Amino acid sequence: MRPNRFLAIVSTLLAFLVAPAFGADKAAQQAEIRKATQGALDKFYKERPALKDEVHAAPGYAVFTTYGLTFLVGGSGGGGLAHDAKSGHDTYMKMAQASAGLQAGVAQNDVLIVFKSKKGLDNFVNKGWEFGGQGAMAAGVAGKSAGGGAGQQEIAEAKTYSLTKNGLEVGVALAGTKFWKEKGMN
C-alpha cells in the first residue's frame, strides 16, 4: 500500500474514532471532555504522585486522549483541553499527529502537558504547531500502562507525559503534531 493511501485511510479512521457524538450539544460535550480530563489527571497522579504538585504549581496544563495507528507511517488524533490555572479558563482543543520511522502499533493514550510559563501556555493555545522526534515503547490494557514516559513530544516551555490506556506501540520516528482550538466548543 502506498504511504499516501495509507495516511488517507488512517486519517479517515481517526476522524470516526474521535468525532463527537452526533447531535450532542455543546455543554454536554464540554462536560464530557472535562470528565475525561479529570479521569486522565487521576491516572497520572496515581502513576506519578509528584505530578499533582507539579500541575498545581504550573501556570497551566493540557490533557488529551489520543487514538493512533502506525506501521512505518502513522497517524493519531484526539481531543482535550488546555487549562489556564490563573483565570480558570478551559480552551477545548483537537490534535492530530503524522509520523514516519521504524514504528508499529495501535494505541489509545492520555497525554499531559505541564506548562512552565504563561507564555508557553498562550503560544500553545494560539499557535499550536509542534514538531519533534519521538521514541516509545509502551503497552496498555484496560487502563493499565507499561512504558511511555516524559518528554516524548517537544513543546516549547512545557513538559509532556504519556500513558498508554489500551494497545501497544514500539519504535522511533519523526513526528509532526498540530494542536488547535476546536471551533464551536469555545
Structure description:
By secondary structure, the chain is an alpha+beta fold. The chain has one domain. It has 4 helices and 6 strands. The protein has helices spanning 3-18, 26-47, 50-57, 118-126, and strands spanning 60-84, 90-115, 129-141, 144-147, 149-150, 158-181. Strands 1, 2, 3, 4, 5 and 6 form a 6-stranded antiparallel β-sheet that branches. It starts with a helix and ends in a 5-residue tail after the last strand.
Beta percentage is over 45%
Count of helical regions: 4
User: How many beta-strand elements?
Assistant: 6
Largest β sheet strand count, sense and barrel closure: 6 strands, antiparallel
Q: What's a quick, concise take on this entry?
A:
With 186 residues, the chain is an alpha+beta fold. The chain is 30% helix and 51% strand.
How do the strands and helices of this protein lay out in sequence?
Blueprint: H1 3-18, H2 26-47, H3 50-57, E1 60-84, E2 90-115, H4 118-126, E3 129-141, E4 144-147, E5 149-150, E6 158-181
Antiparallel strand pairs: 1-2, 2-6, 3-4, 3-6, 5-6
Descriptive labels:
186 residues, alpha+beta, six-stranded antiparallel β-sheet, 6 strands, globular
